Each structure stands twice: as C-alpha cells, then as structure tokens.
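Q: What does the assembly look like in three dimensions?
Context provided by user:
Components: two
Sequences:
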Amino acid sequence: MRYILFLAISLLLVAPSLAAQTTHTVHPTSGAAFQVELPPLTITGSTLDVNVTYDPSRQVYRYQYTVKAPTTNKAPIRAVQIDVSGRTPRPQTDPALQENITRIAQDQPATTIPVGITVPSGWRGGVGQGGDAFFSASPSAVALAGSTVGGFVIESKLPPGVRTLEIKPSIALWRSVLAPLPDGELDPPADQRMYHVKATTVAPSDPDLSQLFNGGGQSPAEVNPFLRYVAPTETRTKLPGGTASTWVVVAFGTTTDPASFTATFNGIDVRSRFTPVPGALHAVQFGLQPGSNKLQLSIEGVTSSGRTARDTDTLTFLVQ
Amino acid sequence: MRSSLILALCVTALSAIAQEDVRPIARERQVVEEQQRDGAYGTRFRWNADGVSQYRVATPSTPAPTESRGRLRPTPNYEIVDDAQVMRYRNRSDYPDYNAGWNGNGIEVPENGLVPRSDSAIGIETGTIRGGGCFPANPDDPASPCLTEPDGAGGTRTVWKQREIWTFRMSYIDPTNPDAVETLVGFPSEFGNFLSDDSLTWVRETSAGRRCFTFYSYYCNTYGIDLDYITGSVRAFQPNCAHKRGPGYKAQIFYQYSRYKITDTIPPGANEWEPAAVPATATRLDKRGKVIFTRNWQLDMGEGAVSFGVGGQVHPKIESNTGYETVAPTVAAATGTINFSAYDCGPIPGVSFSMSTDFVPGSSGHAHPSAPAISEVATIAGSGGTTDADGRWSTTFTTGRVASKLRLTATGNIEGKPFLKTADLSIGFAGLVDPGVDGSAIIRYTGDTTDHPRNHFGSGELHVFVRKMASYYNILAAASDKGTVGINDMSLERGGLFDIDGAWAPSHFRHRFGTDADIDRFVQRTDGTFVFLDQDLLQEIVEDNLKGIFVSESGNRMHVQVPEYMVGDILLREAR
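A: Here is the predicted structure of the complete assembly.
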C-alpha cells in the first residue's frame, strides 16, 4: 500500500534579485577592449514542488518533483540539482529503484545516497561529481517563464530529509549576445552562477537514526523515541527574521499506533497533513508567522513491558 | 717499521684475495709471456695494496731477465721515480682504482699551486718505479761504477743493492711562524686512523730467493716470479678543517738503498742504508735518505666557501579579479630569502659583494622576445652587502605576477680572490604538468602560438576533468557532433600571468595555476571535418555531471574550470 505523505513547496533560502543587466569588458584576442551588456538571467521565484510517498512493500520513498517557472523569470530554467550526499559508503546502484536515465559513469563519492532517477522527455538526469542528483534540460525542453514541468522522480530507500537545492537558468540569452562578437575574454567573466536559485527541498537523506532528537519530556525515557526528529534538532528553534517556512521531518517509532496520532500547529489541527507509518519518516513544511510558532505532536506506542504510553512533544519555532 | 707494515699488509690482503686472483694471475702471466715474445710489455696486471695506497703492477717477467738485459745491467742509477706529481682529486670517483683499470682523473698541482679544501683527496702519484741494480762504488755519486769486492777465489764480484726503499711524505710548516714545527700530514692506513708516511720496499732476495717489491712477495714466492718494477702508484689524504689554509705544504719522496739483506749483520761503522737517514730535530721531521722529489703547494678555502642561493620554487601572486570569487579572489604574493654566506671551517666575516638580477629569457613558457620588468617577477629588497660576524648576509624578495626565472649574480672578492656566484630565483606554481594528448580520440590540443608554444600545463585535476568532459561529450552527443574536443589555452609551464599578446599584461584572467581551460568551438570528426561543438551539452556535462564551471566568452568561445572545491585543493597545494 502506498501512502501519500505530503505535498509541499520548496523553501527559497536565497532569492537573488538581480534584475539589472551586467556590464563586462571584452578583451579581444586582437584589437582594443570594449564593453558589452549582458541581460539578466533572473529566475527568482522559481520553485520545486515535491510530493513524497512511501511504498512499504518495496520500502522505497518516492520523491516526485515539479518545476515551476514564474512568469517573472527572465530566462528559462535549464537544470535542477538536489543534494543527495550521504554519510557512509554504499553501492551506488540498486535495481529495486526505478529510473529511466542512462548512466554514463560514476563520478559521485561512494557515500552518495543510492537513487533511481526518472526524467520527462527532453531532460537528462544523473548523479554528479559532487553527490548531487540533477535534471538537465535539452534546449527544446527548458522550463520557460510561466510554465510548469513535472515528471521528475527520485526513488530511494533512505528517508526524507531537508536538502539543498539549486535551480539554474539557461544562458542561451547570453550566447545570443556574445556569439556575434569578436573572440575574446570577458572581465568580469560571464558567470551565470549569480542567478542560480538556492533553496531547500525534501529529498533522500542519510541521518544517523540512532542519534535523532526525540523531543524529550516523557517519563519513562523509552517513551520519548515514539516521536523522533531529523528536523528540528531542538525543542526551541530560532530562525532569522523573514523566514517564511520550515521543514519538520519526524520518525515514527515501530510500536506506535497511527490512529492515536494528533498534531496541532499554532492551535490548529494539522493531523491531516501527516500520514504516520510505524518505522517510517515523514516530512511536512509549515508556513511561519513572525514571532513564536508552536507545533504539538502526540502519539501512543507500546513500551518494552507491553504497557501503552503516549509521547507528546511541543516544538517551538521562533522567527526573530 | 714501515717495510714490515707493508709486508704484513700484503700478507693480510693477499690471503683474502688469493683464491680469486690465482687464475687471473696465471692467465695474465700467459698473456704477458705472449707479449714478451712480441716485445710488448703491458700494464695489464694491477694490485691494490689497501684502501688508499695503490700500486699498479706490470705483469712480472718470467723467466727472470738476465743481468745484461734492460734495466738490470750493472749500473747503479736506479732510484729515479717516473712522473712523480702532486695530484688533487675533486671527487671520490676521481681517485684511481687500479684493480678496476681506472687510472684516476686527478688534477696536477703545480709548484705552489692551490688545492681547495673541498677536494676529496690530495696525494702523490708516480709512474714507473724500478728496483735493483748494483751498489755504486761511491754512494754519493750514482754515476760511479759498480762496487766490486773480492770473491774469495782470486777474482772480484759485483756488489748488488739488496734492498731499496722509497718513502712518500706529505708535511706542513707554518710559514707565518719562524719557530714553526714541521708536522706530518701523512697518509691513512687501513689498519687504523693514524696518518703516516707511505713507503715502498724492494728486495733482491725474498725468503724464496725472488727479486720483488715486498707488497708482492707472496706472488713472487708462490709463483716463482720476479717483480723489478711497478708502473704506477698513488697515495692520498683527505683535507679537513684541521689543515690550516695557506702555503707551507710539501710533498716529498725519499730514497734509500742498502747492500745488506735484512738478515745480514751490519759491520761496525757501516751504514745500513745509503744515504743515511737524518734524525728528526725539535722542529723538523727526519729525512729518510735522498730527496728525489719535492713539491710545495697551498691549501685554499673550499670551492663552496662562498655559497649563494635561494630556496625552492615559490608561487607568483595573483592580483584581484581572478575569477575565483569564492575560493581565491586573490593569491597573495609569496616571500622568500636570498642567502649569501662565506664559510670555510668557520665564518668569514666582512666579505663584500654586489648582486645583479637578470630575467632568464624563455623561462616558464614565455617565448616572446621582450623581457618583463623585474618587479613583475619579483621585488628584491637588497642588491648586495657584506657578510656579518657569522659570515652571512641575506635579503628578502616578494613575488610578482609573472612566473619566470631570475638569475641572481653575486660578484666580489674574498681574501683577495675574485668570485662570481649565480643562483636562480624560480617563481611559479610547481605542480603543473602537461601529459600530452598522444593518441587521444577525444581531445586535441589547440591554441599554441609562437609567443606561448606550450599552453597546456595544468593541475592533474584539470587534465582529468577535460578528459572526462570530452569522454562524456562523445557518449552523449549526437553522432554528427562527436569527435575530438579542442582543448585551447590552459596555463603556461609554471602558471602565473598568461599574456596572450606577449606584452606582459593580463589578458587570460583565469589561467594562472592550472584550474581552467578554454575549449575550442569546433569538434573534429573522425573523417577530419569540423563541426560546431554542442555547447548546451558541454555546459550540462561541465556543470551537472562534473560540478565544474562553464563560462561563455565572446565569439562563441567557451571556458571551463574544475569544481571550486578542487580549486581550493589545488591552491592549498600550489600556494603553500
């Protein structure tokens, strides 16, 4: 049976607002230097939605992503890159994980989380040298401003966690400006990285499950692990001013009873946003308001003595 | 006594080598017998007396020559030593090894000549030394006729030399001290650390009745041969700080002969040896007979007494705007020290010199004819000076942005002798390599020019990077776009400023230490034709597969860089 775990939108941590064109001095291989203006490649506001499901029969998490390019984008989206680096060495291929890409080499570190990657038509996927899963568009398949492109899937046996994300614009606009010019080198270089959107999303992670934060508070102590957390890592989390949302990744104990689970966020029942599965992890993104935000989670489980007990945790997010 | 020492030495040494040498000796004898028939004596047989003193032995004659033949005719004048010379040996390998057929590569020291203290050895070499002959009627006059005496049967018989001894001496008298005592410099022996004269003895009658040099008596006795001459000899000592610098050194060869065997009783009033030895005095060593060779020489300071140098290669600076905004917006200039010292068994203060600096044309990959301002390579604080009480002088330098080589020349005088010393100051990134593209089906080199003929030096990471890039390109590209990817400028041989136009001004901003490469816009297909490279695909490969950096340039040019974390690693390694 497959459980729909959540639907969320990635959180933009870095949102460069670089709307102006940039000026560069061209040093041609012969002749005098001259200046060229390059148009902005701003893609601020681009998002990557993620829908994570868990298939207990295969014990596989399936992360389905959708790229959304707002109409305000100045350039198409060419690529998305998600951190899937891990902690311990593992075989990098797993036939149980579905994918439709052609792997050409293994450049990633052996500690990278094994993943299966599926891409839509016109896109290429893989795992890069830095331990990042990537989706790359051919020129005809880029995500144009105002478009939505789905069909990106990552499968993994490792649980969800909050991971970094990079969305990259196409530089076709720049090429169209630079190609007719004489051969030369630009100063400063035409570095499109300044337009990359850096954010977080949910993707396979490699937490040390024996060291997860358990929320504390209950006695006896063996009750506390009924609810444990990849994020946050403390009961009171201070966040910088302007932070609009945060991820909560919760691990349900193996003896917990899903029917007993309750959840409120700032006093509002958010139980429906969770689908607890004993022994599985689950991620939910919450929008935050300035000041204090309280999330209260509670679930019953069976202790080693066979007694039923309840673990209740209150997590506070303080937007300063 | 020295003669007995040599005898003991011979016995000891020979017992060790006898097993190996029996057959060679027999073979050599056969060879020489053939040579004798042909009238050609050679020096094919050699014998090494000990680690330092060596004697080169011509194959002994057998059967023994008659008294009327050659050098054994009855005239007394046989003390002459051929080609005696003081020799200096700069290196251990210059010293003769007669057993190996190596006559050495010594340098003759003329009268009052200088010998550097840094030499490996200083010694006395000779050519042929002959033993035998008659005892002269007048021992003071070698040209006098042979001495005869009644034979007891009414006739007379010639009196022969029974023994001869040549003594080789190296001694020193401090010429600055009128009361100086003559000291023995001596030669080493393998039997101890003491230094002594070296001596060579010939006897007319060994225990087996052979004529022989005593170091060889085992062979003479065992094989029934006579040895009346050797063709060469050498002995030497190693100079050290105990030897005072300057004149006063003297090499000598003494000669004595005797009409008495060692077993004879010397008649009262008779001299055992002629000329008789002059005993040592309070200030002078003894004189062992007639001086047949003398050479004075001077010990000079070592050839390395003046040293001048800098450390190893140091990296150039990279000014701002390198393109490595995150990991290396700049690379600070390196600094170092230039050292000059005067030392010869102690510091030599007060040595003045001047230092000039010249650019070494063609160094570090710049083949254009003009030279940069020296300060573009390095700024040197001093231009010469005087050694301090420790015999030292130093100055500092700071690197510029051009990787290259500067030749530093120090000129001056040390104790009245002019010197000129050079040292190369090498500025550059040390680890850049160019493995070439031999036989590659995926990359080709482009962009070499007359000014910069070798433009593909880079870090190992960069070379791997571009090869992976080209390999993946050829896997993923459309069939019509496959071929060799042209790799244009990387870095120069030692990195640093890469001035495309040869004017020592920056143009390639990111080609300084082997992290970046330009990529040709064309792929060359297997049929030799060219087609535009699929830049979108290359960008994907560089950025997404390899996590590198892809930069578009004007005119459809492309530029790639290894991942920034690699840049950090490379910098840590190259800019230490």
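Follow-up: The mean pLDDT of chain B is 85.
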